[in-house]
Amino acid sequence: MSLLAAVGDCANSSLPRHVAIIMDGNGRWAQNRGKMRVYGHKAGVKSVREAVTFAARAKIEALTLFAFSSENWRRPEGEVSALMELFMTVLGREVKKLHSNGIRLKVIGDTARFSERLQAKIAKAEALTANNQGLTLNIAANYGGQWDIAQAARKLARAVASGELAADQIDEAMLGREVCMADLPPVDLLIRTGGDHRISNFVLWQLAYAELYFTPVLWPDFNEAEFSEAVASFVARERRFGCTGEQIRELIAEQQTG
Asked: In percent, how much of the chain has pLDDT > 70?
């Protein structure tokens, strides 16, 4: 995104257009209650509903939720199996509600590793909601930011190998068109629940100029009020995109006066 385009977005709306959330703390939430970790994942579904409801009501264009990373396969087999079954159940139960509210569902990540049954469920849900014009809800499943950039690079490398493209034609804009969510605004606000201060290989390319918000609240306790606080923090910040604050204020003033 060019500086002028980024500043133009800031001038047109103080709210984030695209919010990404690392939904951390489900396991600890369950363990604090003497329960199995999967109990926390099930409890976290309510927070997903609240986040989607808030984002849709606030007219946020896109909400991206980190559901299952490419590294999560390293977790105990029982937990991974339970997560896959939960994913199946939630897809089946929630997609009609999403569709009735005009929400478009996309699953980003390397879904080829999932069972054929789950892949079919994903394809059906995406097809049902494909033409909806409201909030775009991205579920990152078997997703990693490094994987995303690598798969984009592979596409361009194949084009170079076939003679369709010269290597010196490749620039940031071209690579950016090949990563996941290229049709959406870049991430404006990243929220991580659970108290850790890291981005865990999540949407690395798309976070280039994102504001980061970390909260100790565990994901099953994250509600609309917590989401509202995160957005309020975003609105209060000055986004400079590598410039000085004075430059940004001048550019915004120019945008607003036409």
From this structure: 87
